[in-house]
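#struct-help
A.M.: can someone run this one for me? Single chain, 502 residues.
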Amino acid sequence: MDCNVFNPVDLPCGRTIENRLVKTAMYEHMANFSGGPPNEFHYGLYSEWAKHGWGMILTGNVQVSPQHLTLGRDIVVPPTLDAEDVKPFKKLAEVIHGAVDGTRSLAIMQLSHAGRQSANFIGGRLPFVPPLAPSSVRVGARHDENRGRGAMSDLIFHALFQVPMEMTARDILHVQSSFVRGALLAYKSGFDGIQLHAAHGYLLAQFMSPKSNIRNDKYSVAPENATRMLSEIIEAIRKVVPTTFIIGIKINSADYVTSGNTEEVSQEGERRVLDHIRTIASWGVIDFIEISGGDYEKPDFMACSGSQKLDRQAFFAQFSRTVMKDLHRSPVPFSSVPLILLTGGLRSHSHLHAALMSKHADLLGIGRCAVLCPDLPKILRSQLQNNKSSSTWADKSFTREPEAVFRASKWVPSVKLIGSGVGTAWYTTRMRDIAISQIKNPRAEPPPADYNRGGLIAVFTMWAWFNSRIAPIWVLGILMVLIVTAGFSVYALHYEVSWTFY
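D.P.: on it. Structure tokens below:
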């Protein structure tokens, strides 16, 4: 394997990524309430990333169902693909492709369906209308680790997540067609490809997990059926897009286990997901697989700090290496083997180099560091070109991380995910700061990160935002109620983004 971060690599579909640095998907929280198309804030944010030579840039999750939103301000695939419907998405693709240094980033649209993890109040449905899911299993209802978690956690789960409605055959066909429409939207808009979000407990992951799927039909979690939903969607997409259109998948490394001690959970989870990845690779039509982990019940993707971070600078690196070795021993032709995208804990150049050198990954995913340091590729390239010795900078973190503001207030309910939600809110507001700065002056550098912004202030700022400088008092009053009763807790139970690790 070529270990230079800036050397190109070919995807199975024939497209080339100009370097190994990937800006991974993170939820922006910038669309209109109840969902909608990308807008000037998305354009401002992504224009900043586009300036600096990322090999590939993934959007935040674009929902294929307006009735299954995550946090209420999701980008949503429109019901029709007329010219006016496609126009704002085309603008976003043009922005991502608008490099100024000669490096044209590949633009990838992440497609998602929240399934049972679409919350009450802000999920796009009328209050207490249940979401669709493979089976009628509420979030948190079956996971052994959540037994005895406390009255507050139980109250939050029951208030925010309905018992979902089991999907009928007609529902399944409708969702599949929605993903196909999303892929067509990406293609018609000028995106280079899509990533299907089959991680973090969202709908596609729900079909592959025994925690959420207790069906007995052809969409059960039996080995021969577990990836059927995913395979049928991909097969349908490949029929309507060119062979050079990129298709990636984000999949969990530990989303399939219902009980057991930590070691047993890890081993069982790895075995199941490895079986699924083998199956996915055998189709010969997938270009890259991103390795991630956790869901709302067991949010590994949202929380890791202190000694955990020191012990696991690349959280899924060893599993990624296992996947890569396994795939290259498989009967799949070498040219059709999907590339592995590793995300999480890559916080210095030495981490990037080690991940490639140790064959932990083909592609290197950066999320939160991309928010703090949007020009990271340019900085790394400059360091490599201008320094004869890397000993003075290779082991240094790319940038300072605001971990202190992640600590939740003593007034916040003691729910495991609250602290992660606080940190994620901080990064969401940081993305908004970047967007606004670029709207005002596209030639200007983004403002420095505000490390004095506390976590709870970030949560309030994230929700109390109406795309204008002055909002009516009554709107703010209602918003305060939402923050206290729903918004804060929901955000703690959401990512990114999928993305504290990044």
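A.M.: thanks! The radius of gyration is 21 Å.
D.P.: also worth noting: The CA atoms of residues 406 and 423 lie 5 Å apart.
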